[in-house]
Amino acid sequence: MPDNLVSAGSSGFPAPLEHLRLPAELDGSAGSNRARSASTVIAAQNDLQAIAAWLARFADTRTTFDNYRKEAERLLLWAVAQQGKPLSSLTHEDLLVYQRFLADPQPASRWVLARGRKPGRSHPAWRPFAGPLAPSSQRQAMVILNALFSWLVTAGYLAGNPLALSRQRARKAKPRQTRYLEPDLWREVRAAVETMPRETDREREHYFRVRWLFSLFYACGLRISEVAGNTMGGFFCRRDQAGEERWWLEVTGKGSKVRIVPATAELMVELARYRRENGLPPLPLPGDETPLLLPIGAKPRPLTRAAVHAIVKEVFRQAAQRLRHQGEDSACRADRLEQASAHWLRHTAGSHMTDQAMDLRHVRDNLGHESLTTTSGYLHTADDARHRETEEKHRIGW
């Protein structure tokens, strides 16, 4: 591997895009797949600049930006380090080799993070991979890279898309979601939360934060980015056609799309309890900038997605530990809990809603699987029916 690829203090190891320095023969300025016409509509002179131009389109959507940067970064580093050629010289055959590489990035010492460590991008121990990619993650990586190559061709930077020959008909989606908690495992998670210590002020604050977090995930089916990125000012109340007051939560979600989620009476009780524990009035006012989830003993700033993820994983670990104490018969269920992540709670919410025979259109709108049309803003009667059915059929069950 050229010295230009190393990060400070870790000779021979790849560096993130922002620290990468490539020699002229590997920077793509003379790549064999570069477009030779003068119709280029981006100012990029090399592969790093071209990738930066592509990523700039996603700068306002942090999750998308991070995912796209990760895949472009991995391919670029593999191209120069393993193949000894710039990204703009990769062929169709190279990309077939890269697909196999994703399933087992070797040598692991060069490409894979040490277990239990998650250093920052500027740390010498940083690596592009956490481990081998599952088949679904491999497919997603190639979809993202196909989008990158297609855009660079359209921009006049590349002559052709080396992945165009590999495009296949999408596989049929699995008939059922598998990454969710069955009702008995959801009960185990609630039990683990309920047995958390509350002796000290800090323990008590942590308990109520965890209880509120899991209530929010389960009752609303939110994504982890939606929990970290929204505020309590999103809660609002309006009367339905029968004159009954109903609470809602307005969420800005994936792709900056806005949706409203029923805030059931059960959830509002949990919200009021959590706010009181943090010295706040029980109900938020419009424009309340308080984050949906608060740090402990610090200024009211939003938690990062990584911090929320860590909280959820620790609860799952504790629940799994409780199951293991029940005997060997519970080992498989404990293993499943240890595999779970925050996103499993979103799938759990959706699965449990459908299990209770909720109208699939209501489940779809609760989870925000499809963008709302302009007309839906006027369908208050349909919204009221969705709220009523969510209230009746989808309960946290503390």
From TrEMBL:
Residues 374-398 are annotated as: Disordered. Transmembrane segments: none annotated. It is found in: Cytoplasm. Residues 381-398 have a biased composition (Basic and acidic residues). The keyword DNA-binding applies. Its main location: cytoplasm. Residues 176-392 form the Tyr recombinase domain. It comes from the Bacteria. Pfam families: Phage_integrase. Residues 45-153 form the Core-binding (CB) domain. InterPro entries: CB (IPR044068), DNA_brk_join_enz (IPR011010), Integrase-like_cat_sf (IPR013762), Integrase_catalytic (IPR002104), Integrase_recombinase_N (IPR010998), Tyrosine_recombinase_XerCD (IPR050090). Keywords: Cell cycle, Cell division, Chromosome partition, Cytoplasm, DNA integration, DNA recombination, DNA-binding. SUPFAM superfamilies: DNA breaking-rejoining enzymes (SSF56349). This is Tyrosine-type recombinase/integrase. It comes from Thauera sinica.
